Amino acid sequence: MGRAVRREGVSAATGFAISAQRCPDRPGLIDERGTLTWRELDEQSNALAAALQDLPAGAPRVVGIMARNHRGFVQSLVAANRIGADVLLLNTSFAGPALAEVVAREEVDAVIFDEEFTPSISEALSERPNAARIVAWTDEPGAHAVTVDGLISGHAGQRPSPTDRQSKLVLLTSGTTGSPKGAKHSGGGPDALVSILDRTPWRAEEVVVIVAPMFHAWGFGQLAFAALMACTVVTRRRFDPEATLALVDEHQATGLCVVPVMFDRIVELPDDVRARYSCRSLRFAAASGSRMRPDVVIAFMDQFGDVIYNNYNATEAGMIATATPADLRAAPDTAGTPATGTEIRILGPDFQDLPAGETGTIYVRNSTQFDGYTSGATKDFRDGFMSSGDVGHLDDAGRLFVVGRDDEMIVSGGENVYPIEVEKALSGHADVHEAAVLGVDDAQYGQRLVAFVVLADGAAATPEDLKAHVRRNLANYKVPRTITVLDELPRGSTGKIVRRELQALVEPD
């Protein structure tokens, strides 16, 4: 194991090399194609790394990966690390124009992608004709000239040549309100591991089901951590709520890694479907990436046990806080208490510390902060504390509550309104399944509130009914001017509501 670390260096892929030495014949990855042991995963990643070095244009310096959760994603990640290439994880929801902007900005010279994304990749690389294109997953073997499977087969038994370059991981911010930015990470050190192990009951060499997207900071972090712990990773390309419960029971998984909207979809399954699965092997079900619905948290734990761990992370800062099941029973909407090695301050408009209960900007300090955006920009820092970009408050028990993004605050007629409080009021109506609130420009008030709701099955509440409900629970200036009923809210692949798509639905006043 020590030799593996010296050979690999410390990177996102170090855990895979360690596990190949630690327990080579144990299952390392299980996907729709079957099982790979840690040894097989290691050898195939070496073969792919050697193949990347042998590409006609030479070894790539920046490798983009646009793939769903499967072995090809993992092999590509490890292989790129082993040749010292920077790894850019691409959101599978990207359309051609956004993708083109990112690959040009990050100077990508090789892209590994699933067959289904071929049109987007072709459009994005139209100005980069020399970039290598490698297909990671295809439903038609032989349909593509260059594939991950073909490169592995053609370089079986080979290892990559040593390199002096140190691979870095480039994670993209969610970009739900604007263009996603690249955040470069060189690793978080031991505090990043301690912060997870102190709160979440991982155990080495057990089975973990990871259905959170691996291209996202949260899903990727769970994958990397599972490899360090030699935990068998069970995954599937597309999330399905019932199939996820089935995987937990079939493999007796002790861990489940999701994004919050996946809890919603599981709880929304018919009662008789959920009742088919016990999931009693679970010790933890960890989530991050967006707000969790308190009613869903309680419903899931009432059926499957007190196993939910809510993690508040930022692409730029790693783990910030974790809410344990006990925290969530006490306050289902809390983000928890600061992670080990992390300090949190709530600062007001003049950057003064605010007391418990008062809402301000969340600033954090830890060892997992990023190396800066790839554009050369960085975040706002105050006395070594970095702005998370969110607003929130602490309670008297030291628990953090995230109110929303600092750029989501709405000033209507001189009054400050945070969308989440109006969303909570709307969601408290029996006919409302979920809600989203935002501010739009208004000539008279500066901004006005607009809301979008998804009604529960069979519900018949009208926008006027819902306005009256908000008026009974909040100040009059917090009542949305308009409420639009949708079949569903637009979400990105990590489950976050894409507010710019809602903005496009707003009719001019």
TrEMBL record:
PROSITE patterns tied to this protein: AMP_BINDING (PS00455)
Enzyme class: ligase
InterPro entries cross-referenced by the UniProt entry: AMP-bd_C, AMP-bd_C_sf, AMP-binding_CS, AMP-dep_synth/lig_dom, ANL_N_sf
Alphabetical list of Pfam families matching this protein: AMP-binding (PF00501), AMP-binding_C (PF13193)
Domain AMP-dependent synthetase/ligase: 18-373
Keyword line: Ligase
Protein origin, superkingdom: Bacteria
Occurrences of domain AMP-binding enzyme C-terminal (ranges): 421-496
Catalytic activity, reaction form: a long-chain fatty acid + ATP + CoA = a long-chain fatty acyl-CoA + AMP + diphosphate
UniProt EC number: 6.2.1.3
Signal peptide: none
Molecular function via GO: long-chain fatty acid-CoA ligase activity; medium-chain fatty acid-CoA ligase activity
Keyword Ligase applies: yes
PANTHER family: ACYL-COA SYNTHETASE, MEDIUM-CHAIN ACYL-COA LIGASE ACSF2, MITOCHONDRIAL
Homology family: Belongs to the ATP-dependent AMP-binding enzyme family.
NCBIfam families, per database record: PRK13382.1
Protein name, UniProt field: Long-chain-fatty-acid--CoA ligase FadD13
Organism of derivation: Mycolicibacterium madagascariense
Lineage, opening ranks: Bacteria, Bacillati, Actinomycetota, Actinomycetes, Mycobacteriales
